[in-house]
Amino acid sequence: MAGVATLEMISARGGFEVSDLIDKIVGEVKKNGN
């Protein structure tokens, strides 16, 4: 799933806060859903 891949990628970089991580995943889901 794209969300999981994004999560793993960002976690590997370790440069994001959890809130930013969630916002990014939600944004990806919305783009893919529409």
Please characterize this protein's 3D structure.
This protein has one domain. It is flat. It is 82% helix and 0% strand. 0% of the residues are buried. It contains 2 helices and no strands.
Number of domains: 1
Strand content: under 5%
Oligomer: single chain
Q: Over all CA atoms, what is the radius of gyration?
A: 9 Å
| Mass-distribution shape | flat
Distance between termini? 16 Å
H/E series, N to C? HH
Instruction: List the total number of helices.
Output: 2
Percent of residues in helices: over 70%
Structural class label:
mainly alpha
Residue windows where pLDDT falls under 50 for at least 5 positions? none
Question: What's the β-strand tally?
Answer: 0
> Largest beta sheet, briefly?
none
Mean pLDDT across residues: 74
Please supply descriptive tags for the structure shown above:
single chain, 34 residues, mainly alpha, 2 helices
Topology record:
Blueprint: H1 2-13, H2 18-33
Helix pairs in contact: 1-2
Short synopsis of the structure:
The protein is 82% helix and 0% strand. It contains 2 helices and no strands.
